[in-house]
Amino acid sequence: MVIEFYYHPLSPPSQVVWMVLKELNIPHKENLVDLLSEDNNKEAYTAINKYKVVPAIIDGDLTLSESRAIAMYLCVKYEPKDKAERLYPCSGVAEIANFNRLVFRDIDNYQTLLKYLNGDEIFVGTASGPKENLLPKAIAVLEEVEKLLSGKQYVFGNHLTLLDFFVLTTVSCMEVIDTDWKKYPAIAKWKSDLMKLPYFEECHAKGVKEFVELYKEYCAKSASNPERK
Questions:
Q1: Preceding amide of 13 cis, omega within 30
Q2: 83 belongs to a structural domain
Q3: Which tens digit of pLDDT belongs to each residue from 13-46?
Q4: 98 with 12, same domain?
Q5: Engineering a disulfide at 56: which of 6, 203, 218, 222 sits with its beta carbon 3.0 to 4.6 angstroms away?
Q6: What's the first-to-final CA gap in the chain, in angstroms?
Q7: φ, ψ dihedrals at 115, nearest 5°
Q8: Which residues contact 62 (CB under 8 A, 6 or more apart)?
Q9: Tens digit of pLDDT for each residue in 76-111?
Q10: Which residues constitute the domain of residue 129?
Q11: pTM for the complete prediction?
Q12: d(CA 62, CA 103)
């Protein structure tokens, strides 16, 4: 059975699920939901995800949204039970609890960066850049991740896990302001190692680059709009 995967390549949550599908070699069909054309608001997609966001999957009788729920589901169902280095570690209650704690913490960090980057206002033309008063909170997120990765190759344990995908898409949001990653050597080294993944460019880097270009384009448009408040 082939999973129907609904995504947009510029969407960080979509990138997470895409990388999981690739890492686990799960057969799937990629269905582009063009957010720029508002395909996500059309009945064909809202019938799949009433919240009108990507990603979503259909796996047999199951229709599922929310990237972290999808990623965990894919691991639980499709990752070999005897696999030593699991994307979703589950060797004991304490390990699961600590892993999930970092997953939920990353959600907070992701939302903090999104608020700073101010995309909701930029893409409707009411702002021309990030909310500078929130920059300290954004920097605090990067410093937290830098500390988390200090002296480590991966976010959790000694091998690749879902947390690497989650945290990667979170910190990569800061590419839009040309972040100097030399200030965060542990993050820079970790990202450099992840770049060796065979699907890194297709499922993550290309989308990040295109989003950076789009973000800056809209910032420039808004800055030149005389009607902007």
A1: no
A2: no
A3: 999 999 999 999 999 999 999 999 999 999 999 9
A4: no
A5: 6
A6: 52
A7: -65, -40
A8: 73
A9: 999 998 888 999 987 789 999 999 999 999 999 999
A10: 93-223
A11: 0.95
A12: 23
Rg (CA), the chain: 18
Rounded CA gap, 54 and 38, in Å?
12
Q: How far apart are CA 179 and CA 52, in angstroms?
A: 31
Q: Do 57 and 99 fall within a single domain?
A: no
Query: What is the spatial distance between Cα 205 and Cα 72, in angstroms, rounded to a whole number?
Result: 22
User: For residue 71, what are its two tokens?
Assistant: 């990623």
Distance separating alpha carbons of residues 38 and 52, to the nearest angstrom: 9
Q: How many structural domains compose the chain?
A: 2
My answer on whether 189 and 214 are in the same domain is yes
Asked if residue 206 and residue 99 are part of one domain, the reply reads yes
* CATH code for the domain of 74: 3.40.30.10
Q: Tokens at residue 15, please? A: 């990138």
162, 168 in Cβ contact below 8 A? no
* Residue 192 counted as domain residue: yes
Contact in structure between 168 and 194 (CB atoms under 8 Å)? yes
Do both 74 and 111 map to the same domain? Answer: no
C-alpha distances (whole Å) from 37 to each of 6, 7, 32, 33, 118 are: 15, 13, 11, 9, 21
